[in-house]
Amino acid sequence: MAFPYPTITLEEHWLSPSVVEFYATRSRPDPYQETELLKSRRQNLVEFGDIRLKSMRDNQVTLQVVSHAANALALDLETCVQVNDQLAKSFAIAPESFTGFATLPMIDPNAASEELRRCINDLKFVGALIDNNCEGRFYDDPFFWPVFETAQELDVPIYIHPSYNEQTKPLLHDGNYPEAIAQTLGMYVWGWHSENALHILRLFAAGVFDKFPRLKVIIGHMGEMLPFQLDRIIRVAENQWPMAGVKIERGLRKVWDENIWITTSGMFALAPMATVLRQCKHDRILYSVDYPFTKNEWGLQFLKDLRDDDMITDDVLQGIAYKNAEKLLKVKARPLTDEK
């Protein structure tokens, strides 16, 4: 049976020629030339045309929110401006099918704030997607908080995305196995997701959500492991952290329910989804694919499996597919009848 609803996907990527040039000027290959898996996705990362559109239309993606793929180097302002302008121009192939998340120079938070403002006001983007670290630094450092302040002011979400971290890989993921295994452990098998989860907890512990109570943060991959540890973390934060002099005004459950949205990107299994549905308010769950690292076909099949398993009501399914994203991003998914 066909899936009856349009979909909006929020963690969908491309690779800018300006970023490739940025790496070259620093005598570094871009990350998507370094491993066999990432090389295999490079063509579809660079392409922004018929292949992308056909995959979307064949699999009921009526609106794709596009963002730049993860970076191993902190980008400067000039490169970010070029990336955002190129992305906005790329939408001309089908303006009704695309919108964007801004790429920001987090190495310069004041410049990043102004670029976010430009992207929202001038380019009509719907938020920003930022790498999980900036040259190994995490955003619990108040140095980075002007970006959160601006996002709160503009009422747009910040998507915190897993990314390369040369500082943590040697310590945590290199071991008595081939380098190719260490790379996968440090990235998309485990390390990226556990580090992204820890980053959210660092923001919470540092009081970011007390300082910016209306900040909207999106994380992918069914919550980057957090739904499975959430109750334990809440208990420790409430009962033990005050002994160390740390008292967060807005507790983790409140932050989780009011400030965090999660997407399904790249995670298409019913067992973890059952936990997500019990741990998250249903209007905070968003459908995403993680194109082109995973396939739109897999995402659509997951939605069908979710429907056929009778795990959720039809209203909740519609919310996950597109309605929750419409509300968060202030966009509209075109009905399936508009698809060509």
How are the SSEs placed, and which strands pair?
Elements: E1 7-14, H1 17-25, H2 36-46, H3 50-58, E2 61-68, H4 77-90, E3 98-100, H5 109-121, E4 128-131, H6 145-154, E5 158-161, H7 169-172, H8 179-186, H9 191-205, H10 208-211, E6 217-219, H11 221-224, H12 226-239, H13 252-258, E7 260-263, H14 270-279, E8 285-286, H15 296-308, H16 314-329
Parallel strand pairs: 1-2, 2-3, 4-5, 5-6, 6-7, 7-8
Helix pairs in contact: 1-4, 4-5, 5-6
List key phrases describing it.
340 residues, alpha/beta, five-stranded parallel sheet, three-stranded parallel sheet, 16 helices, ACMSD
How would you describe the overall organization of this protein?
With 340 residues, this protein is of the alpha/beta class. The chain is built from 16 helices and 8 strands. It has one domain: Metal-dependent hydrolases (TIM Barrel, Alpha-Beta Barrel). Strand 4, helix 6 and strand 5 form a beta-alpha-beta unit. Helix 4 runs parallel beside helix 5. The radius of gyration is 19 Å and the shape is globular. The model has no long low-confidence stretch (mean pLDDT 93). This is Amidohydrolase-related domain-containing protein.
Give start-end ranges of low-pLDDT stretches: none
CATH level-four homologous superfamily name: Metal-dependent hydrolases
Percent range for helical residues?
A: 40-55%
Calculate the mean pLDDT score and round it.
93
- Domains (count): 1
**Helix run count:** 16
The helix-and-strand class reads alpha/beta
What pattern of helices and strands is seen along the backbone? EHHHEHEHEHEHHHHEHHHEHEHH
CATH architecture tag: Alpha-Beta Barrel
Q: Strand tally, please?
A: 8
First-to-last CA distance = 20 Å
- Gyration radius over CA: 19 Å
Morphology:
globular
Note the beta-strand portion.
5-15%
CATH class: Alpha Beta
CATH topology-level name: TIM Barrel
Largest sheet: 5 strands, parallel
Strand order of the largest sheet: 4-5-6-7-8
